[in-house]
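To close the chapter, one final illustration. This time we ask the reader to focus less on the individual chains and more on the assembly as a whole: which components sit near each other, and how the overall shape emerges from the parts.
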Amino acid sequence: MKFATYRNGTRDGQLMVVSRDLTKAVAVPALAVTLQEVLDDWEGIAPELQTVYTALNNGELDDAVAFDESLCESPLPRAYQWADGSAYVNHVELVRRARNAEMPPSFWTDPLMYQGGSDDFLGPKDTIEMGDTSWGIDFEGEIAIITDDVPMGVEAADAGQYIRLLMLVNDVSLRGLIPNELGKGFGFFQSKPSSSFSPVAVTPDELGDAWRDNKVHLPLLSEYNGEAFGKPNAGEDMTFDFAQLVAHAAKTRHLSAGAIIGSGTVSNKQGTDHGSAIAEGGVGYSCIAEVRMIETIRDGKPTTGFMQFGDTIKIEMKDNDGASIFGSIEQKVLQYQAD
Amino acid sequence: MKFATYRNGTRDGQLMVVSRDLTKAVAVPALAVTLQEVLDDWEGIAPELQTVYTALNNGELDDAVAFDESLCESPLPRAYQWADGSAYVNHVELVRRARNAEMPPSFWTDPLMYQGGSDDFLGPKDTIEMGDTSWGIDFEGEIAIITDDVPMGVEAADAGQYIRLLMLVNDVSLRGLIPNELGKGFGFFQSKPSSSFSPVAVTPDELGDAWRDNKVHLPLLSEYNGEAFGKPNAGEDMTFDFAQLVAHAAKTRHLSAGAIIGSGTVSNKQGTDHGSAIAEGGVGYSCIAEVRMIETIRDGKPTTGFMQFGDTIKIEMKDNDGASIFGSIEQKVLQYQAD
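The assembled structure is written out below.
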C-alpha cells in the first residue's frame, strides 16, 4: 500500500491512499482521517485499506482524484518519535578520517543513533528556511521506516516484524553548528532542524525483492541544483539493518506506533579509499559534507561549499523500471524571515 | 487552570479539568477529549475551559467526580516534542568537578539541552521497569513547561508568552549507559528512557507570585524510599529561565503546540562548595548522581548506590500553605519482564 497526507488546514492533514503508480489518490474518511490513526490501529484498519488500495489500482473508485505531490505534507506532518541512526558506517569513518581521528572499533557493532525532534516536519516540497548560511546548511538523503508498537528489549531478530512503512528523508543538517553542539556533550539539537519526508510512505511489500534483509536494495538518487549528485545503493554498506536499528532504539524503552527510525546518510564505499563523484564515474554522495571530507582527505581542505539561499535539492528513489516509488522530496533553501 | 489525563484505554486518554485543591475533576468532552486538542487550539478552547474551571472550584458542577491521581497518565501520555535543558548549571559544574574536568565558561551563557523521546511517557504512578540495575537507574526531579506554537528565532524576551502549562518531571536516567553513549558523540538515547510527569499540569497563574521571571520559586520535594531527599528551590540557581530555554529550542526550528521543555535537574548551590544533604541541614538533591558527585569530591569516591528494584521515588511541589500543586509523581523501580 501507499499513503500520503494532503494539507487540509489541520495539523495532521488528510490521509490519502495513493495508487501504486502515483497517479491516483483517494481519501478514506470512513476508515481513518490521518495516517497516525492508521498506525494507532494497524491490525484493525490495514485490511480494509488494502481493499481500497486494490480497487484504486484497478481504477474502480469513482471518488479517486489525480494524485498531486504538491499538495502533500510529510506522511506524518508531526510524529511522536524520530530517531535517526547512522547505519552507513563508511560515512562515519570518512568524517573521522577527514579530521584525523580514529573511529572506535565499537562503531562497527554498536549503532550510532540520535534522538531527533518530530513536532514540526517540513513537507516534501517545502522551502528550507534558515536564518543564516554560515550555519552550514546541508541535506542528508536517507531511508526511514515507521514502526508499529515495539516492546522494550526486542531482539534484532524479532524487530523486523514491527516495520509498517518506508519513506525517504531529507535530514537537514546545520554543519556549522554541529562542532560546538557536540562539544557540549548533549548531542544534536539546533544543528538538526526540521526534517522532511517523501510525499508517499509505502508498505515494505511494495518494494518487492528490493526489500530484503531489512534493507532497501535500490539506489537513492540525489540531485543538487539540478545535477545528479548521488546514486548510492541503500542496500550496500548498510552496517546495521532496520531491524537492528529498531532493536537499538527499543533497548530501554517501548516504541509507540508511528515511531520513525532513520538509516542515516546513505553512503557507499565504492571500493576506493575515498569514493567517487558521479562525474568521476562513481555513485556520488547523499550529502555535501561527505564530498568535503573526500576533498579534505585528498586535497587537505574542502572546496565545495554548503547550501546557499536559492539552492535546490531533490531526493527520489526509482524501481528497476524507472518508476518513482515514494514521489520526490524537492526543496529550495531560502532566507528565513520572522513574521 | 489545572488539567489531568485519565486512562481510558486510548493512547491519549481522557482530559479532565481538575479543581485547584485537587479534590474534584470533570470531563469536558464537548470542549476537548484530550489535552493535546486543547493545546492545538488554546486561544479557542481555553476561555471555555476557564468557565468550567471556575464552576468546578465553586462546586457548581453536578457531573464532577472525586479527583483520583491513581487514574492519571502523564498529562500528555505521548507528545510531539520533549526537549530537556540543564538550566541549573551548578549541577553541571558538579558533574565536571567530580571527574576533574573543567566546565567551559560558555556553559554559563549557552544552555545545555538534549532532545528527548516523547512517544511513550510513563504515568505519574507507573512503575519504572528496567532490565538491569547495572544500568545505574536514577531519578531526576525537574520542572517542565508546555508551549503553544513558538515561531523559529523567537527572542528570549518574547518567548515567555508562549508558555501555557507547567508540570513536574521525573527524567529517569541510566547513569551507567551515559558515558559510553556520550562518548559516541550523538548524545543521549538509551540512557534516557521514558520520563514521567506529575498527574496535573497547571497554568502559570496558578502559581501566583511563585511564578515570576519565567521561573518557579518554590522548593521541589523529592522523597527517596520514604525519606526526604531534596527540597531545593526551583527559582534559585536557575541560570537559564524557561523563556531562555524556549528561545534556545526554537533557534533553528518552529516549536509546535504541546512542546514540552524541561529545566534539567533542580539543584541549589547552597553557599558551600559542594551542597548539603537534608540530614546535614541543607536542601539536599533532586537526583542520586549529585550525591555521588559530592561524595566523590569530598571522599574520593561515591558511596551512595543508584536505584535498586523495589526502590521508590516521590516528587512533589507544595504551595506556601502546604497544598500540593501538581499532585505527586510516585514510582517504584521493578525488573522489566518482556511479555
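Residues 76-335 of chain A form a domain with the Fumarylacetoacetate hydrolase; domain 2 fold (CATH 3.90.850.10). Chain A has two domains: 2-71, 76-335. With these observations in hand, you are ready for the problems at the end of the chapter.
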